[in-house]
Amino acid sequence: MTASRPYPRAQQATIRRIVNAYLRENGLHDITAGPLTVSLPASGDVLRLTVTHASPTGHHDYAETPAHVIDAILGELERRTGFSGTRVLRAQIDGSIDRTARYLAQPRRARPSHADPARESEQSVLFGHPFHPTPKSAEGFSDGDLDAFAPELGVSFALPYLAVARELVHEEGDVTVPGDVAAVVPDGYVPIPVHPWQARHLRRNPAVRRLADAGSIVDLGPCGGEVYPTSSVRTVCDPTAGVTWKVPLHVRITNFVRNTPVEHLRRAADAARVVAQLPRRRGFEIVAETGVRTLDPAAVGHDLAAEVNVVRRVAPDRCARVLAGLLDDPAVLAGYADRSGDVEEWLRRYLGIAQIPLLSSFADHGVAFEAHVQNSLLRLDDDGMPARFLVRDMEGVAVSRSRAGLLPPGSPALYDDEEAWRRLCYHAVTNQLAHVIHALGRHTSIGERRLWTVAADELARFSDADRLLAMPELPAKANLLSRFTQRGERPHYVRIPNPLWKAASR
């Protein structure tokens, strides 16, 4: 079968994502297995597809589909929106397909199997977001950069550090570096880790060169032990030191360039303070962020500060796997559930340590975690049952303004209650839970619809889930339209049917 080869396989995976995104974003939810005809009214084209699996939340599978479907959908979007985005997005789609094929074709770096389940899962996201047209785009990385820095290739590398004059640095919290790094930092300077690609990028920056010539910045070069890039590419983990560094990377990954503006750092620091006050919940863990460090924007300007900074995060349990890695091949997660002996009980336990604590954090404290599959980690017990759920990345936390607590009124972590709730529903349910249930239902004998009923029945036992169960629709990011109209940082949203409401209302 041609789709078993790397490029056709990558291409078919991309077509599936684009078709499913188009159906979702245009309200085409009533899909059944078998022949499917999709009219494109603005262009007059018709798509003729064969659905091999129909999903209640749009995770449909198809028989092999011709590549011209991509151009037909982009042409429809251009006629409908009047936005000339076809050429740009088509190039980005092609780049994403090429990179996916490369990851599928190249042998991953040799390392002991199962030595570090956390790393294995972080570096196993070969296909990426199931409703995104360019899930593996990385504009700014050359082929050589991919070989050196792509997590999908199982790489690791030494992390460079800059020593910055203390008067040019702003920091909050604890940003302790490993001892062997601290030992080489000159007196009066503060260390900031930098991604190797970013270090090269900064050397071409005239403002950085001026600071270096003045002695305000000293390039320490690679220091400390090797780190490995996680699924987000720009966040790197030093497992020996037990620390993870979130650093800027001036590369457009999926939607936008991954630098870190000062406002984002402030949001992360403010959210970390709020989250630290939350009560502990059994089986639910928040990956702590201990501090942030940046060039002071008052001294160097906001643009440069966004390119040189770091968030220090405690490295999570090395047996906890990122959900994005477990779900990249949905059969992997389903295999653990199947081997546990009771898929329905597996889901109940998952809901108990993941969805219930996430909903309760918002109901009781107004805290909405950005718990999409790349920010969610799962530890399984020896039988394959869910044992611990972890959520990370405080920059994405939204705190309801009505329960601001210790945060100042102008904090960027504060959101109106409805917006915070919408973010929680999208990330925790539309993105995360729907993907988990699709994996279990598609690749075990239970089926997705039955599992949504199980989920609704289980959630109905908890009053914190009442608001979710009463919603006929869920919010969903319109990634295809947003990428087409170049609104990656301010995405459009659509509504999709809520299977939990349907099951609870039966």
Order the strands across the largest sheet as they lie in space: 6-14-15-10-9-8-5-7
- Proportion of beta-strand residues: 15-25%
CATH architecture of the largest domain: Orthogonal Bundle
The chain-level mean pLDDT equals 95
Q: Per the principal axes of the C-alpha atoms, what is the gross shape?
A: globular
Gyration radius over CA: 23 Å
Q: What is the makeup of the main sheet?
A: 8 strands, antiparallel
Helix-strand makeup class: alpha+beta
Discrete helix count: 20
The amount of helix comes to 25-40%
Low-confidence stretches: none
List how many beta strands DSSP finds. Answer: 23
Question: Structurally, how many domains make up the residues?
Answer: 3
CATH class of the largest domain: Mainly Alpha
Please characterize this protein's 3D structure:
The protein is α+β, with helices and mostly antiparallel strands and 506 residues long. The chain is built from 20 helices and 23 strands. It has an eight-stranded antiparallel sheet. Strands 13-19-18-16 form a four-stranded mixed sheet. The protein has a three-stranded antiparallel sheet with strand order 1-2-3. Strand 1 and strand 2 form a beta hairpin. Helix 13 crosses helix 16 (417-443) and helix 16 packs across helix 17 (448-459). It is globular and about 70 Å long. The mean pLDDT is 95.
Summary keywords:
506 residues, alpha+beta, 3 domains, Transferase(Phosphotransferase), domain 1, 4-stranded mixed beta sheet
Short note summarizing the structure:
With 506 residues, the protein is α+β, with helices and mostly antiparallel strands. The chain has 20 helices and 23 strands.
